Structures are given as structure tokens and as C-alpha cells.
Amino acid sequence: MRKAGLGMLTAAVLLGGCSGGEEAAEPIVIGGKPWTEQYILPHILGQYIEAHSDYEVEYEDGLGEVAILTPALEQGEIDLYVEYTGTGLKDVLKMESEAGQSSEEVLQQVRAGYEEELGATWLEPLGFENGYTLAYSKESGFEAETYSDLAAVSRSQELVFGGPHSVYEREGDGYDDLTEAYNFNFAGTESFDSAVMYEAVRSGAVDVIPAFTTDSRIGLFDLATTKDDLNFFPKYDAAPVVRLETLEEYPELEEVLNGLAGEISEEEMLGMNARVDIDKEQPQDVAHDFLIEQGLIEE
Fold first, then answer.
1. Alpha-carbon span 248 to 254, nearest angstrom
2. DSSP labels for 77-143?
3. What integer pLDDT is reported at residue 37 of this predicted model?
4. Where do the TM regions start and end (predicted)?
5. Rounded to an integer, what distance in angstroms lies between the CA atom of residue 226 and that of residue 179?
6. How does pLDDT run across 127-175, given as a tens digit for each residue?
7. What is 28-129+235-294's CATH number, 3.40.640.10, 3.10.20.30, 3.30.450.40, 3.40.190.10?
8. Cα angle 191, 197, 202; round to 5
9. pLDDT at residue 5 is higher than 70
10. Do domains 28-129+235-294 and 132-226 have the same CATH topology?
11. Which of 62, 79, 81, 215 lies closest to 135, judged by CA?
12. pLDDT of residue 124
């Protein structure tokens, strides 16, 4: 494993009498998921780390969904990435959420669970939540303000649900649990890459998708969104998840990363996503501009 090799290398350096005993032997590896926001966030964390410490970073952005990133974190193939508290709670720890749970309550649950089971911990949230909203085209011919409204429509009309592959595989907050909780009766389902499903619902190929609340394509395609009126989904606050061994090997890292706590609003994340999705700018450039504009790093 990468960390085992790092430990041996560090010991060898110390035994050799290197005067720079606290110098990190390897860069910190930051992972990410294969969609817009998750291509930007690794660069926000990485550029901030390099600006506020002597540590170097490497990027494994777009590495995979949570089913890929969790074992990669456990095995030391990556050191950290940004996860969402609700995903950690339901999809990784397989824990139930309670209606009306606060962000802090969910954070404490996932922090304790990750430290006990995965050898990792959650640092302070970045400030925005990226939850789910069931979205549909305003030209669909029906109207719904809540998930319950939409469920009623699905029982009276033939609606097709379309979502990314992971939605059908997830336990706790996936398709099967959602349809059971609200008594949806979709006539069919389609599976897409998450980047394709917005175009699918806009074009009428499907009728309903599980959109991300910070995705700029909700506005770009003028989609209608609905409210989770039964609080089926927990809070999905974004926060860095870091291996405990990494925090020991890089002792300034926790304090540095917590300098980003509360610094990214939902509106700011939406704006950055739009620059990548709509204006076709590079994620690392968008991340750099944000850090400069917010006074978080110097030019």
C-alpha cells in the first residue's frame, strides 16, 4: 500500500540523519468523483493546502463514485476527498437518518462511524449542501411542488424515471427506498451518466430525474424542482474526509483544511459549476479564481 511505503521511506530518511525531519516524503493525494463539482473541489483543497503549508499535492480527480473512493481511502491510495454527509451516513455506513436531523447531528454520526470503521475522519464542512431534488421539464404537462405531488402524478400518468447508475445501486437513499417511501409508481426507468440525465429530461426522453441542487443545468434547462416533504433524504453537507494516518503524517493538514470551513456557499458552488458546464472553463482555473476572489490565497 502507498502509506506502508511512505512509512518505510520516512523511517529511512530519519535514520539517515536528514535535517528536514518534518518534510513530507510524498505529496498528499486528493481524490474526487466524476462530475463537475467534484472536478473543482479537489483543486480548491489542493491549491489552498499548497498556499498555506509546505506540503505538495497530487490529484486523482474523477477517480470514481463513493464505491470506488471509499476503499481507495481505506487502502491509502488517496489521502482525502470531499464527501457529502448524507452519502457517508446512508451509502457507506448504512445508517438510518431521522427526519429533521440537523447538519451537526449528521456530521457527528458520520465522523464517529468513519473513525471507528474506516480509519478516516470528517473535517469541518465547507459551507454548502448538495442535496437531491426531483426535477422535471416545465413543458411536461404536469405540475408538482413536492415529492408527494410527484408521486401522485406517477400513479395517474405513465412517467419514466431516469438517473445515474449509482442511484439504482445505492441502499438507504437510492431508487428502491425512495419509491417505497413515497409510493411512486413509475412506468419505467432509464440509466444514464449523471452528466447526460439533464439533457434527457429536457428533451423528454425521461420525465423525472434526481438532480443535484448545486447543478447549474437546473437553471440552464429551466427545470422545475420539487421539495422532499417527508425528509426522506438526510443533510448532504460537503466536507473533506481524511485518513487518520494522513493527519498524523502531515500534522498541519487538519488546521489548514479547516481554514476552508464555511467558505463556500451554495450560490458560489452553483456559479463555479456554471463556469465549467456552460462556459467550458477548466476546473483548476475556476478553483484558483475563487480562492483569489475570496482572499483565501494570494496571486
1. 10
2. S-SEEEEEHHIIIIIIS-PPP-TT--HHHHHHHHHHHHHHHTSEEE----S-B--EEEEEETTSS--
3. 95
4. none
5. 15
6. 999 999 999 999 999 999 999 999 999 999 999 999 988 889 877 778 9
7. 3.40.190.10
8. 130
9. no
10. yes
11. 215
12. 98
- Here the cell at position 168 is 439504482
- Inter-residue contact 137 to 204 (CB < 8 Å): yes
CB 123 within 8 A of CB 239: yes
Domain spans, the chain: 28-129+235-294, 132-226
pLDDT (average), residues 197-205: 94
d(CA 145, CA 194): 23
Closest by CA position to 186, among listed 147, 224, 212: 147
pLDDT tens by residue, 247-284: 999 999 999 999 999 999 999 999 999 999 989 999 99
pLDDT in tens, 184-195: 999 999 998 877
Answer yes or no: CATH 3.40.190.120 is held by domain 132-226.
Answer: yes
